[in-house]
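Q: What does the predicted 3D structure of Sec-independent protein translocase protein TatC look like?
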Amino acid sequence: MALRRPSANPEGRMPLREHLVELRKRLVLAALGVLVGAVLGWMVYDPAFQALQDPLLDAAAERNVVASVNFGGLASAMDMKFKVALFIGALVSSPWWLYQLWAFVTPGLTRKERRSAIGFVGVAVPMFLAGAAFAWYVLPRAVTVLTEFVPEEATNLIDASTYLSFVMRFVLAFGVAFLVPVLMFCLNLVGLVRGATWLKGWRWAVLISCVFSAVMTPTPDVLTMMVLALPTIGLYMAAVGLSLLHDRRVDKRLGTADADGTLTR
């Protein structure tokens, strides 16, 4: 059960209308930040495009086949440039939109507790980028499935939109996956969710992690799926452990926890 601390609102919650207004405000601010980052992405599109297609070219070279990214439509090249620019914008503006996320999650807390946004961003940004880097590290193995059935000395023309959308979705998805445990622990720190609540959902966490890895890695072997699933499961368990330790310290300072997880003050 969630442990709620006193907030600026006497009832500890915001009216639905205020929630929707706050959500719209944060979404607009986050989108503006991504657009500003996309300007940089537009400027560095050429080297970024080369880096995104390198895993495909390297996998093709290892199998002695010719593979290339093909723009099949008249406007597909421009469309892809916009997508790559937004992808880069999401990466470089991650400190900004992560701050907006935390500001929306904790609008009714005290001023002191809202300062936790700085700590959240300070930890969340490296974790998000670490997840993206991890995805980039294992990407060549996932991309192999795109070329493994191509006969030697043949040419494989891969649709640019299909391939690049897969790569960008893959990188961003694992960035978000590494971000979830940070959000879990921070929610516990500000007293919104107890560690026991996170612990009760461990079976669902394992299942979702495995399904997520299976969907994001279209390779036939289980080993690759587990290589991606184990870090996300491990981070979830680490967040649960840290939350339980924090709850223990809070319980010793303020009282003892009831059997159902509520705090007796």
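A (community wiki): The structure tokens above were generated from the sequence. The chain has one domain: 18-256. The longest helix spans residues 222-254.
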